Amino acid sequence: MNLHEQCLLRYLTHPDELSYATEILKLNNKILEQKFVVKNILANAAKLNYTENID
Questions:
Q1: Is residue 49's pLDDT more than 60?
Q2: CA-to-CA distance for 30 and 7, rounded, in angstroms?
């Protein structure tokens, strides 16, 4: 079961804790976004700078 399913299950069993489950999902999404940026954008920029020829 992934985090989104856990949060949905938590909401269904405790509907008064919707804001808590929403904050957990927002935090998880932010972490995933940062990992994506580091892995795909910053790593590729470093490769470009490293392999660039200087004449």
A1: no
A2: 16
Chain segment 12-44, per-residue pLDDT in tens:
888 887 788 788 888 988 998 988 888 877 766
Average pLDDT over residues 39-52: 65
Round to whole Å and give the CA distance between 28 and 36: 12
| CB of 55 closer than 8 Å to CB of 49 | no
Give, in order, the Cα–Cα distances in Å from 16 to each of 1, 2, 4, 29: 22, 21, 17, 22
The answer to whether 7 and 23 have CB atoms below 8 angstroms apart is no
What's the residue count for the chain?
A: 55
Rounded Cα distance between 36 and 13, Å, is 32
